[in-house]
Write a structure and sequence with these properties.
Structural class: alpha/beta
Distance between the termini: 52 Å
Strand order of the largest sheet: 10-9-11-8-7-12-13
Number of helices: 15
CATH topology of the largest domain: Aldehyde Dehydrogenase, Chain A, domain 1
CATH class of the largest domain: Alpha Beta
Helix content: 40-55%
Length: 422
């Protein structure tokens, strides 16, 4: 155990040294390195996909849920999207050095608050190898060294991805230790990273509720908490039926293995008779099972859709599957009460043509993102124009919502005088 801890602390030490160099890199330096990393992924795509297949095969043999296997899987199109995301990050403005605010005091002192890197950022995540590249790229652009700790299920894929990225960094005159895969695959090795206070500046967990809770509760290193996605869609009495069907089906079924997929549907009783038959037919076509209250189950049964009675476990669930909890509510107030009880604070959506209802909904929910007449699937760093994201924060300190470059910085005050004394 001591050997594991020593190895992790050594990674952090080397990351700190690399971070000193990163702080002094120009935007051009960082952007050139990002583009080199993207090209290296393309050149090595066959090798990466082949290694990933080994991880996928092991996961399937272990009986891993289909949604999690989907998260683990890389193919040529997904790898191209990951490489393109690095190039998107290269095109974004560099936040380092931005003046958050600046002013001159009556005594002539000039005060500027500047964005600076956080330093050494540890990312603990589950079976999503795209996070390996996204996190490395965002940390590089924002001047941070990245310590990456993925799950054992993606270990082979993560190893080859990090090898490719480090080779590209060296070719770009950037320290390879700016991106490191934390050694070890045991829970103990994760604990060593979580307790490396003073060596690691901040931890960001990405994954399911169990992972996030264990990192938040067990870390002595400061944590930026990302959240699970029990996302709700509320269809208001004044919704457009066709628009609402498209939004609900997209939010639930476009990709089920992601945190911004809808897990709960609430429908105002005044529109249920017009809306639910059309929706149930569409959900049946894409294979969604409705976990509904009594009214919802009647509509599901009439349309031939798969259904089951809803339970408290369903209302709380982040399914990662073609399942949705659903209920008919008597009012927007009832919908808001339900959301306040069960939401994870990630994303909620309202479908309505009533500006009064929209204003009430936006003011009444307390989540990182609120969608108005749009799918929950848009809560994403890339969709928000960030290029990529390191996670979606559901906490209220420092960063909330999709975390891009600015959220990976802190600030320093630079005060300039001319012989001033106090």
């Amino acid at each position: 155990m001591s050997d594991d801890r020593d190895a992790i602390l050594d990674c952090a030490r080397r990351a700190r040294i690399a971070g000193t160099t990163l702080r002094s890199l120009t935007r051009d330096d960082k952007d050139a390195a990002l583009r080199a990393c993207a090209q290296a992924l393309r050149v090595n795509s066959a090798r990466i996909v082949s290694v990933n297949r080994l991880d996928v095969d092991r996961a399937q043999q272990a009986g891993t849920a289909a949604g999690l296997v989907d998260r683990l899987t890389l193919d040529e199109p997904r790898l191209e999207a990951i490489a393109a995301a690095l190039e998107d990050v290269a095109e974004l403005p560099d936040p380092v050095g931005d003046v958050v605010r600046g002013y001159t005091l009556p005594n002539g002192l000039q005060v500027r608050q500047l964005r600076v890197p956080l330093g050494v950022v540890g990312i603990i995540y589950e079976a999503r190898p795209n996070v390996t590249v996204d996190a490395a790229g965002l940390c590089l652009k924002s001047g941070n060294a990245a310590l990456l700790r993925g799950s054992s299920s993606a270990q082979s894929t993560n190893e080859v991805l990090v090898d490719v990225l480090r080779e590209a960094l060296v070719a770009s005159d950037v320290p390879a230790d700016a991106v490191q895969l934390v050694p070890g695959t045991s829970h103990e090795s994760v604990k060593h990273l979580m307790t490396a206070r003073g060596s690691v500046d901040v931890l960001i967990p990405r994954g399911g509720e169990g992972l996030i809770r264990s990192v938040v509760e067990g870390s002595t290193v400061p944590v930026i908490e990302t959240g699970v996605g029990n996302c709700h869609v509320y269809v208001d009495a004044d919704a457009d039926v066709d628009k609402a069907v498209r939004i609900v089906v997209n939010a639930k079924a476009q990709r089920v293995s992601v945190c911004n997929a809808a897990e709960t549907l609430l429908v105002h009783e005044a529109i249920a008779a017009d809306f639910l038959p059309a929706l149930m037919a569409s959900l049946r076509e894409v294979g969604v099972t409705v976990h509904g209250d009594e009214a919802m189950c009647r509509y599901a049964e009439a349309s031939g859709a798969s259904f089951a009675p809803v339970t408290d476990e369903d209302w709380a669930a982040e399914y990662y599957s073609l399942d949705i909890a659903a209920g008919v509510v008597p009012s927007i107030d009832a919908a808001l009460d339900h959301i306040r009880r069960w939401s994870s604070g990630h994303t909620e959506a309202i479908v309505s043509d009533s500006q009064t209802a929209i204003r009430q909904f936006v003011a009444g929910v307390d989540s990182a993102a609120v969608m108005v007449n749009a799918s929950t699937r848009f809560t994403d760093g890339g969709e928000f124009g960030f290029g990529a994201e390191i996670g979606i924060s559901t906490q209220k300190l420092h960063a909330r919502g999709p975390m891009g470059l600015a959220e990976l910085t802190t600030t320093t005050y630079v005060v300039t005088g001319d012989g001033h004394t106090r």
